[in-house]
Amino acid sequence: MDTQISTLPSKKQAALKQRGSWIKYLLTSMLILIASATPLLASSGSGGESPNMTGTLFGIFALVLFVGAYCLVIFEEQLHLRKSKPVLFAAGVIWILVALAYISIGDTHTAHAAIKHNLIEYAELFLFLLVAMTYINAMDERNVFQALRSWLVSRGFTLRTVFWVTGVLAFFISPIADNLTTALLMGAVAMAVAGNNKKFLVVACINIVIAANAGGAYSPFGDITTLMVWQKGKVQFAEFFAIFIPSLVNWIVPAIIMSLTVAKERPEASGKAIKMKLGAKRIMTLFLCTIVTAVSFHNFLHLPPATGMMLGLAYLGFFGYWLKIKEHRQGTGDLPLDMTGHNPDEHEVPAGHGHAPAPGFDLFRKIARAEWDTLLFFYGVILCVGGLGQFGYLAMASHAMYDGLGATGANVLVGFLSAIVDNIPVMFAVLTMDPHMSHGQWLLVTLTAGVGGSLLSIGSAAGVALMGSARGIYTFGAHLKWSWAILLGYAASVATHLFINARYFH
Description:
single chain, mainly alpha
């Protein structure tokens, strides 16, 4: 190797030597880190209890790594770096640190059992979301959302009517279709109607984000956090509707305030009519049947809801088979437009079909169009938070929040944290802490984690998505100007829950 390096030009030779010295330096530093951490870990273990490793170098490095990775997630739009990449890396390294930390105190089993538990948590969430995303993609491909948008745009409503219609629809579609899809759909309607009216578009987008987040809070299917709470068994399916009125209050208070700034002018109706494709209504019916199946698996068979969702995927698979044959016979297997007016599958070439697009309905193409970046992001978040829990950080946070502030104060704080960080890791951390609190408090934290993200535009997937769709118009600063009104709605929703659901606080 040395002889090969010596024959290279001097600049390359110097670069290789410098690189080699850096590698030696890093390896030496890692060995020193492990050696210095071992005595600290050995002293922190106590019998059969989980050792507190928050003060060890392993634990501190894991925490710094997670914070660094999440900073990259927060600046995803500016860096153009997919949010799944930094958390995937952080998750892997954190569990390496967890394993080394426990091995150093002679425990070779705890880390293995803990990561398996986290993988099961993720597997249930992954399968559930994959099926839900597949159904949404199938309805999108059948022009369900495009037909709704076309109908709304062609009605010739006033701007104030559009403001309220998009808000109401966002509030009631979000519990089924999730807040991200709902925000994109209603945002497309607002942009189609607004034209050059930027003032209207800003308040319309803010209204849609609040409504979509509030609507997702009272349904297990409306947000990832509510899904996690339901799958953990903290709140039963029917019990989520106890926070329907508080969720409605969270949206209606800022909506009334913002609507006063919206003019009653009537923009010119535009856009051609779009009809739903063959089988669209039946796919919507199958999706509802799938939801019923998942709920039944959980409530009556005491099985994970994800298994019911996978059975529902089989419903769509068999119907898709019939639909593909039907369209092939009719010669109507043209490729559809998505919600943005583009053909999402125009470059997809199925194996064995040359360069021609595949006609008809194809279930596996709908699965392929799932939000894989989001699904992998959830993996990274769950394993990162789970790893930090093994070091003792979640126990420390639980003591500081729930013992120091009390359950109500801590759960209200969760909403503010959700706006700054993201509600998914915050809620997963709360579920992992598993503080002892009443049923009403679990409903409260479900509410605050769901609606708290509306306080800032970056606080929810719905807000981030609309910032991308209405780039340069709906911005962080534009949303921040109305945060005071959103905060009023947040406070009103918490107060409403504490009043009307007082029976759950026992």
